[in-house]
TrEMBL record:
Lineage per the UniProt record: Bacteria, Pseudomonadati, Pseudomonadota, Alphaproteobacteria, Hyphomicrobiales
Organism: uncultured Microvirga sp
Top-level division of the source organism's lineage: Bacteria
Protein name per UniProt: COGs COG3672
A Pfam family hit: Peptidase_C93
């Protein structure tokens, strides 16, 4: 079964009927590869660089408006949002690098308690580090990125990303861009998956050349990420 990490629904209603229909159609096409998530917990330990499935790179479409809560997060933590173009835009995957990524993903997923922003802070959407040990989807991913930066990975190659999940709701994941393709760290599973095997519709993510966000060609962006 999928590990029970993560976020609760608070803003699924932000998607209109047409968006939901589009997302549902795309998710249906991804259903077979999306089954990887179901056995993710069982395969996590077995994943190695040699067995890592090949991933493609997500294609950017155009500029996109960032989530409002992200903008407020950047006001509080500008160093987390700055883009250093001197850093590599992709990570060269090695066995040690893969073990580090897997370990951080598992550690954060198992140690942070899932809690909605409404229950936590009294607001629909707030992005921040789960300093008190509780948070929702984006908080997990922000902590993972900070921990990976502390372990020497370039922040520029790790991008906060907004998707539409299997429930047709907004969700935040961390995209790691590598020489083997783009992989996803998710609080819903401790398996690290190629982006196209998540079953999600990819909406937008942080850019790599400046602080603007970029569209990934998904459905109309939700105003905020769901607390899942």
């Amino acid at each position: 079964m999928r590990a029970q990490f993560g976020c609760f629904n608070t803003c699924g209603q932000l998607l209109g009927p047409a968006d939901i229909a589009t997302a549902a159609a795309r998710l249906a096409k991804a259903a077979l590869v999306g089954l990887t998530l179901v056995i993710g917990g069982a395969t996590t330990q077995a994943q190695t660089v040699a067995s890592l499935p090949s991933a493609s790179k997500v294609v950017e479409k155009s500029t996109a408006k960032p989530v409002l809560a992200w903008t407020k997060f950047c006001d509080r933590h500008p160093e987390e949002c700055a883009v250093d173009v001197a850093e590599p835009a992709t990570i060269t995957m090695t066995a040690d690098m893969w073990r580090t990524i897997m370990a951080v993903n598992r550690r954060v997923n198992t140690r942070i308690r899932p809690m909605t922003d409404k229950a936590h802070w009294g607001v629909v959407d707030s992005w921040d580090f789960p300093e008190d040990g509780a948070g929702d989807c984006e908080d997990y991913q922000l902590l993972k990125r900070r921990m990976l930066v502390e372990r020497g990975l370039p922040r520029r190659a790790m991008r906060m990303t907004v998707v539409i999940d299997e429930l047709n709701e907004g969700h935040a994941v961390l995209m790691i861009r590598t020489d083997r393709g783009d992989y996803i760290l998710d609080n819903k599973t401790s398996a690290v998956l190629p982006w196209e095997q998540t079953g999600y519709v990819f909406v937008k993510r942080e850019g790599q050349d400046n602080t603007a966000w970029v569209s990934l060609g998904g459905v109309t962006s939700p105003v905020s990420t769901a607390n899942r």
